[in-house]
Design a protein that fits this description.
The chain contains twelve helices and ten strands. It has 315 residues and is of the alpha/beta class. It has a domain at 3-184: TIM Barrel, CATH 3.20.20.100. The strands form two sheets. Strands 3-4-5-6-7-8-9-10 form an eight-stranded parallel barrel, surrounded by six helices. Strand 5, helix 4 (101-115) and strand 6 form a beta-alpha-beta unit. The protein is globular. It starts with a strand and ends with a helix.
């Protein structure tokens, strides 16, 4: 497993980040535990979750599962770089969402309880909150850092200008600021290349791409739909995109077949070799999915294949 610095920090993280969105929802509790065990054994030390994950059962459910996994073996927590998030609504109460100081601090404490840990390595602002002044946001985060509850601050789903404003506000206050950004980025969705990735590169912010297969669309969707084996491909963003991009996806799968390569591995490998990308958030539902991601990391694409993909999926 390859490990790299997270942005401009000295923290080392695996280039594959284990996303836990599926745990306890599309996997059983024990399957999720098995995947976390296998990921750690393979050198994946970066685990990502969010306070609202598991909402299909109840918000906070996924953090609870991870906390239970930590509790089963006291040594696991020290081996994991743990990221979680704050901002999305946790109830219908007006102050149980967003980036107010009240919600940031209360959410961190609640996540710590669910995760059964004393600290969060990467506390990520899950979305933009235009009502929250940066002095209020950073003031709350500085309290948590000072208490030892948070080590680093990241963002997710930020526009380039908003990330810049966050970092400039941090500089004025004399703190480290944002060290990472999670954004949707894949062959189908390349918008981050225009402004966000140049901004993160300029500010030394690491970038982890989430949904590198665009919800399964780039994982052999046309074939799976024909075979009746589609799971994620038949729903969500993949299902929406398939309505207008079926011909392009068919051409993509044909190219992968000519290469003798798995479409999911080609798509993930493309993301991992893009300029400015630190790594990718993967969301395996099975051990085979995890092994496939590891193969993609070890098989970078050559210039000829990358050129063909650029022609098929222009920026």
């Amino acid at each position: 497993m390859q490990h790299v610095r997270l942005g401009r920090t000295a923290l080392k993280v695996s280039r594959l980040c284990l996303g836990t969105l599926n745990f306890g929802v599309r996997t059983t509790r024990e399957e999720g535990f098995e995947i976390m065990d296998a990921a750690l054994d393979r050198g994946v030390n970066f685990f990502d979750t969010a306070n609202n994950y598991g909402w299909q059962v109840h918000k906070g459910f996924t953090e609870e599962l991870i906390g239970e996994w930590f509790a089963r073996d006291g040594g696991r927590r020290d081996k994991v770089v743990l990221g979680t998030k704050v901002c999305q609504p946790m109830s219908d109460r007006p102050n149980d969402q967003g980036l107010s100081a009240r919600h940031i601090i209360a959410s961190c404490d609640a996540s710590l309880r669910r995760l059964r840990t004393d600290w969060i390595d990467l506390f990520q602002l899950h979305d933009m909150d235009f009502t929250a002044p940066w002095d209020e946001v950073w003031g709350a985060l500085e309290v948590l850092i000072g208490q030892g509850k948070v080590r680093y601050v990241g963002t997710s789903n930020f526009a380039a200008w908003y990330l810049v404003s966050a970092q400039e506000a941090a500089v004025r206050r004399g703190n480290l600021g944002v060290v990472s950004e999670q954004c949707v980025y894949n062959l189908v969705r390349r918008g981050a290349e225009a402004e966000l990735i140049p901004a993160t590169t300029a500010y030394g912010v690491g970038v982890f791409a989430w949904s590198p297969l665009h919800g399964g669309l780039l994982g052999g969707a046309v074939r799976k739909l024909a075979d009746g084996t589609a799971v994620k491909t038949a729903q969500g963003r993949a299902e929406v995109e398939m309505r207008t991009q079926r011909d392009r996806i068919s051409e993509y799968e044909k190219l992968c077949a000519e290469l003798g390569a798995d479409p999911a591995e080609v798509a993930l490998s493309w993301v991992l070799t893009r300029p400015g990308i630190t790594g990718a958030v993967i969301g395996p539902r099975t051990l085979d999915h995890l092994a496939s991601a590891e193969r993609a990391l070890g098989a970078p694409l050559d210039d000829e294949v990358s050129g063909k993909l650029d022609e098929l999926f222009p920026a």
